[in-house]
Specification:
Layout: E1 4-5, E2 11-12, H1 14-28, H2 33-44, H3 54-67, E3 71-75, H4 81-89, E4 95-100, H5 103-115, E5 122-126, H6 129-138, E6 146-149, H7 156-165, E7 172-176, H8 192-206, E8 210-219, E9 222-231
Parallel strand pairs: 3-4, 3-6, 4-5, 6-7
Antiparallel strand pairs: 1-2, 7-9, 8-9
């Protein structure tokens, strides 16, 4: 990776990003044997190491607490690491529905969620999110105070449509991995994930009922970023 000097004269590299992430985590995030065991269980099960970082997980928890969220929808459970962060931020009596397409991942997540003592709070649903989301609407399980979208990127526009339908004025929608190492700015990139993110950004820019921005991030997960969207109050 190429390096660039910072104002301090230190070469900016991914190794530095990782060290800074670890520095903040060690001081601001107390030791958590449960979350450590979740990461270990995911590794033993062969799940891809693509969960949010500890600092990102804490950010999700803080956003849930700021929202005073009682109902959360998550798209993309993986091993349940982000699910646990989200669920821990909810007020007592809250509920979280998380959708996962891979049955193996869902089984690992259920074990991890039970290990965290959250099995009565979290409902893991297995299947194609675009088939489950209409069911949630029919079952009147919305509106959700917060939706976290961290699933396949080519379908983000459709996921965002459903997130809007299942939200209320004042709800928060967070979409992860929208910078893609900066590749998002290349309109000629044929990667379906890149094109999905670009369609979502255009969609968000034209959405009259929501206001959002994108924050670029660096750290143990490399160079990426997330969108934060607030559903606007009705006129």
């Amino acid at each position: 990776m190429s390096t660039e000097p910072s104002q301090s004269g230190i070469a900016v590299t991914k190794d530095l990003w990782t060290e800074v992430d670890q520095y903040f985590s060690e001081i601001l995030l107390p030791a958590d044997p449960i979350l450590d065991s979740v990461i270990e269980a995911c590794g033993k099960a062969g799940l891809p190491p693509i969960a949010v970082s500890p600092n990102q997980g804490k950010l999700l928890q803080l956003l849930v607490q700021l929202m005073d969220a009682r109902s959360i929808l998550e798209l993309g459970t993986l091993g349940g690491y982000s699910t646990i962060w989200l669920a821990r931020g909810m007020r007592p009596g809250g509920r979280l529905i998380t959708l996962e397409i891979d049955p193996k991942h869902a089984d690992v997540a259920r074990g991890n969620i039970a290990r965290a003592g959250l099995q009565s709070v979290v409902n893991v649903r297995v299947g194609n999110a675009l088939e489950i989301l209409p069911q949630l609407a029919v079952q009147r399980l919305g509106p959700f105070d917060l939706t976290f979208i961290d699933a396949d990127k080519q379908n983000i526009p459709a996921y965002f449509d459903w997130a809007m339908k299942l939200s209320r004025p004042g709800s928060l929608i967070i979409v992860d991995n929208v910078v893609r190492d900066g590749a998002v700015i290349d309109p000629t990139n044929a990667d379906p994930n890149i094109q999905g993110v670009r369609r979502f950004i255009d969609q968000l820019g034209a959405e009259r009922h929501a206001s959002g921005t994108v924050i670029q991030t660096v750290g143990t997960k490399g160079y990426d970023g997330f969108a934060i969207v607030l559903v606007k109050p009705e006129a």
